[in-house]
C-alpha cells in the first residue's frame, strides 16, 4: 500500500532543505563542481555541466552525446558505431550504437581477465551455510570459453535460442556469457517454474538447446530440475540437446538428448574466439507476464543493454573498484540478468551469487553473509525485508555490517515499516537506501534516489527521481501529460534510453499494443505513479491485471487459464489482495459446472495443486472461493472491481452493483466470503 507523503517522511527530515548538489572541491576536471560519490570522468566532455542537475539535464537534452561518450569510454568495440541512436517513441522504434560491433562476453570477462586476471569475479554463496566458491576473471574466462565451445561443437550457432534452466551458480552465469560469446540468444527460465511453464517458453522461443542442472537446492530443499526438464521435453519434440551440469550429483532420469556438460567442457578447447556482434543483434529474451495468459519474451540487444546495466550498477549503487557487491536476486529474473551478471561484470566488479533463501538456516542468513564476505552493496526485495523484520533485530545485530554503504530495494513498493527497518536496523542509519523502480522491459533501473552522502534527503519508500537519460511523465486518460499537483497518472517514459526493450519475441504488434499505443509518443510501463511534493516519483501499482507476488510478476490470466482447465470448473477469475509479507497474493473466484457440488472433497486442494504443477509455487492462490456463478455485467463481462472488494473482505462497500446482470450473485458471494477467514 502506498502511504501519503506526510505519513512517509518523518517530520524532522522533511524540514531539511533539499540540496541536490553543493559546492565541493573539483574532483573531476576543469573545475567542475559535481557531487557524484562515484566519479564520472566523461563529465569533462559535457560542456557547461557544473552540477548534478546540469548533468541530468545534459543527459536529456544532449542524449546522444551523453550516451555516445559513455559507450565509447566504457565498452570495448571491435568496430566503432557510426550512429548513436535511431529512435522514435511515436512508433516504438529504438536502435542504439548502429554499425558498432562488439561482444558482450569480451566486455564482461576478457578485458578484466587481461588487466586483472586474479580478481574475483564471482563469489558463490552456496545454499549450505559457509560454503563459498570463488571464481576469478581468468577462471571465468576459461569456463565461458569451454562452455561456448561445447555449444558450438554440438551445433549451436549464432542466432539460435538456448533455454537456461538452472539455479544461481557460476555455471549458470557462464552459460549466459557463453551464449553471448557465440551469438546465441539465451532465454533463462526461473528454476522455480513448472514443466508446463518451461515448455511453453521453450516452444515460444523455438529453442533447440537446453542447459540445466541435475538438482537445485534451496533452503535445504532439493528440487529435481532435470526431471522437470524431462517432463517439459515431452511437449517440446524440437529440442535437440540438453546440457546437464551437476549440483548434487544425485540420480535423475536420463534421455537420449542428454549431454554431460562437465564432460563436454573438459574436452572442449579452453579458448573460444568471440563472435563479432552487431549492437542491435539479440542478446537475450526473458519471459515476463502481461495481462493475457501468454507470457511475452522481452527482447534485449547487445550494446545498449550492456551499457545501461553497467551505468546503473555503478551510479545507483555507488560501486567503486574493490567493492564486494551482492544482488541476491535469482538469475532467472531481469534483476539477476542486469545486476548479478551483466552490470557488475561489465564494470569488472566482484559479484556475489546467492543460491539460498533469506531464512536458511535461520533469519540471519543475509547478514551472516554480509559479515563473512564483507559486502559493500546489498540489493534485495521488500518481501524478504518484511519477512525478516518479523523475526526481530537480534538476527541483524549479532553481525558486523559496517562494510555496507548502499542498500537497494527492487521489484515492488517498499512499505514504510520495511524501509525504516532496512535503513535503521540493517543499515544502522548510515547507509543510503535506494528504492529502485524498473522492469524487465526497461533493462535497468529507471527511477531511483541518488545514493550520496551529500546531505540530501532520500524520501522513504519512493524511487524519487529518474536516472540519467530517463524522463518520466505522468499521463492522464486523455493521453496528455499531467503537470503540477499531486495527481496520479500512468507512469510513462518519454525519451528513449539505451536499455529499453526492442520487441516481444515473435510478436512486435503485441509489443506496440502494450507499450507504445496506449499513450502515443510515450513508453507506457503498465504502472501508475504520482508525484509527491510535485517533485518525486512514487509508484502506485499496476494499472493492468498483473499481480506482484513477493516481487514476482504474474498475470491473473495465467492462473485463471489453469483453474479453467479443471473438469469441474465453469469459470475462474483471479484478483490480487494485499498480503503482509508477499505484498500481494492471488485470490481466486471459481464457479462450478452444473451438477458439481461445492462441497466436493478437496476441490480447493486440487485447484491449488494444479497451479503449483502448471505454473509455479508462488502463483498458488492464497484463497479460493467456490461459488455457482461470478458477478457479470449484462454484456457478460466479469466485474473485477467487485471481486477485488469481496476478496479484500470489504463486503459492505461494494459500490454500484446496478449494472450487474444478476445482483443476487454478489449477495451469495458476500455471504460465502464472510464465512472465510
Ligand atoms: O509494478 C512494477 C514493479 O514490478 C514491475 C516490473 O516487474 P519485473 O518486470 O518482473 O521486474 C522486476 C524487477 C525490476 C513494475 O512494473 N516494481 C518494480 N520495482 C518497483 C516496483 N513497484 C514499485 N516500486 C519499485 N521499486
UniProtKB/TrEMBL annotation:
Coiled coil: none annotated. Signal peptide: none annotated. Residues 110-502 form the AMP-dependent synthetase/ligase domain. Residues 558-637 form the AMP-binding enzyme C-terminal domain. Transmembrane segments: none annotated. It comes from the Eukaryota. Residues 52-108 form the Acetyl-coenzyme A synthetase N-terminal domain. The keyword ATP-binding applies. It is an enzyme of class 6 (ligase). Its EC number is 6.2.1.1. It catalyses: acetate + ATP + CoA = acetyl-CoA + AMP + diphosphate; propanoate + ATP + CoA = propanoyl-CoA + AMP + diphosphate. Keywords: ATP-binding, Ligase, Lipid metabolism, Nucleotide-binding. NCBIfam families: Ac_CoA_lig_AcsA, PRK00174.1. Belongs to the ATP-dependent AMP-binding enzyme family. This is Acetyl-coenzyme A synthetase. The lineage of its organism: Eukaryota, Metazoa, Chordata, Tunicata, Ascidiacea.
Amino acid at each position: 500500500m502506498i502511504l501519503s507523503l506526510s505519513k512517509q517522511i518523518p517530520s524532522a527530515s522533511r524540514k531539511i532543505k533539499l540540496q541536490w548538489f553543493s559546492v565541493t572541491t573539483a574532483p573531476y576536471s576543469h573545475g567542475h563542481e559535481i557531487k557524484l560519490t562515484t566519479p564520472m570522468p566523461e563529465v569533462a566532455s559535457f560542456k557547461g555541466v557544473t552540477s548534478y542537475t546540469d548533468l541530468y539535464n545534459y543527459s536529456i537534452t544532449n542524449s546522444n552525446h551523453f550516451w555516445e561518450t559513455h559507450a565509447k569510454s566504457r565498452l570495448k568495440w571491435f568496430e566503432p558505431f557510426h550512429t548513436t541512436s535511431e529512435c522514435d517513441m511515436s512508433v516504438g522504434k529504438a536502435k542504439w550504437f548502429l554499425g558498432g560491433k562488439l561482444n558482450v562476453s569480451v566486455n564482461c570477462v576478457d578485458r578484466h581477465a587481461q588487466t586483472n586476471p586474479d580478481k574475483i569475479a564471482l563469489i558463490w554463496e552456496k545454499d549450505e551455510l559457509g560454503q563459498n566458491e570463488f571464481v576469478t576473471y581468468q577462471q571465468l574466462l576459461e569456463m565461458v570459453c569451454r562452455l561456448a565451445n561445447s555449444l558450438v561443437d554440438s551445433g549451436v550457432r549464432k542466432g539460435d535460442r538456448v533455454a537456461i534452466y538452472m539455479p544461481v551458480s557460476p555455471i549458470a552465469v557462464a552459460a549466459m556469457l557463453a551464449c553471448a560469446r557465440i551469438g546465441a540468444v539465451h532465454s533463462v527460465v526461473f528454476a522455480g517454474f513448472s514443466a508446463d511453464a518451461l515448455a511453453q517458453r521453450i516452444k515460444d522461443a523455438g529453442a533447440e538447446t537446453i542447459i540445466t542442472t541435475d538438482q537445485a537446492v534451496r533452503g535445504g530443499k532439493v528440487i529435481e530440475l532435470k526431471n522437470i526438464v524431462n517432463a517439459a521435453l515431452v511437449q517440446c519434440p524440437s529440442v535437440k540437446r540438453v546440457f546437464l551440469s551437476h549440483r548434487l550429483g544425485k540420480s535423475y532420469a536420463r534421455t537420449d538428448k542428454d549431454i554431460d556438460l562437465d564432460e563436454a567442457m573438459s574436452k572442449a578447447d579452453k579458448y573460444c574466439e568471440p563472435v563479432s556482434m552487431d549492437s542491435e543483434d539479440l542478446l537475450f529474451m526473458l519471459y515476463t507476464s502481461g495481462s493475457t495468459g501468454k507470457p511475452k519474451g522481452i527482447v534485449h540487444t547487445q550494446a545498449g543493454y550492456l551499457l545501461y546495466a553497467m551505468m546503473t550498477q555503478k551510479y545507483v549503487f555507488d560501486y567503486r573498484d574493490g567493492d564486494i557487491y551482492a544482488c541476491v536476486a535469482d538469475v532467472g529474473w531481469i534483476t539477476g540478468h542486469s545486476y548479478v551478471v551483466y552490470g557488475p561484470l561489465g564494470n569488472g566488479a566482484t559479484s556475489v551469487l546467492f543460491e539460498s533463501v533469506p531464512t536458511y538456516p535461520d533469519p540471519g542468513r543475509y547478514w551472516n553473509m554480509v559479515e563473512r564476505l564483507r559486502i559493500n552493496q546489498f540489493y534485495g526485495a521488500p518481501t524478504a525485508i518484511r519477512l525478516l523484520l518479523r523475526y526481530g533485530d537480534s538476527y541483524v545485530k549479532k553481525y558486523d555490517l559496517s562494510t555496507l554503504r548502499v542498500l537497494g530495494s527492487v521489484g515492488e513498493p517498499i512499505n514504510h515499516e520495511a524501509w525504516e527497518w532496512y535503513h535503521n536496523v540493517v543499515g544502522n542509519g548510515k547507509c543510503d537506501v535506494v528504492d529502485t523502480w524498473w522492469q524487465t522491459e526497461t533493462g535497468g533501473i529507471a527511477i531511483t534516489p541518488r545514493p550520496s552522502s551529500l546531505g540530501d534527503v532520500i524520501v522513504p519508500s519512493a524511487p524519487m527521481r529518474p536516472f540519467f537519460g530517463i524522463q518520466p511523465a505522468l499521463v492522464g486518460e486523455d493521453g496528455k501529460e499531467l503537470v503540477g499537483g499531486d495527481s496520479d497518472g500512468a507512469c510513462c517514459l518519454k525519451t528513449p534510453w539505451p536499455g529499453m526493450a526492442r520487441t516481444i519475441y515473435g510478436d512486435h504488434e503485441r509489443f506496440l499494443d502494450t507499450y507504445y499505443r496506449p499513450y502515443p509518443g510515450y513508453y507506457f510501463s503498465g504502472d501508475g505513479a504520482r508525484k509527491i511534493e510535485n517533485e518525486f516519483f512514487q509508484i502506485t501499482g499496476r494499472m493492468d491485471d498483473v499481480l506482484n507476488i513477493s516481487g514476482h510478476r504474474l498475470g491473473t490470466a495465467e492462473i485463471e487459464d489453469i483453474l479453467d482447465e479443471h473438469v469441474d470448473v465453469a469459470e475462474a477469475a483471479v484478483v490480487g489482495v494485499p498480503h503482509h509479507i508477499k505484498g500481494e497474493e492471488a485470490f481466486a473466484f471459481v464457479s462450478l459446472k452444473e451438477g458439481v457440488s461445492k462441497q466436493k472433497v478437496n476441490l480447493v486442494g486440487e485447484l491449488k495443486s494444479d497451479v503449483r504443477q502448471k505454473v509455479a509455487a508462488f502463483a498458488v492462490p492464497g484463497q479460493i472461493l467456490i461459488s455457482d456463478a461470478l458477478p457479470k455485467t449484462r454484456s457478460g463481462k466479469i466485474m473485477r472491481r467487485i471481486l477485488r472488494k469481496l476478496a479484500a473482505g470489504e463486503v459492505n462497500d461494494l459500490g454500484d452493483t446496478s449494472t450487474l446482470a444478476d445482483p443476487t450473485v454478489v449477495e451469495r458471494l458476500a455471504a460465502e466470503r464472510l464465512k472465510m477467514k
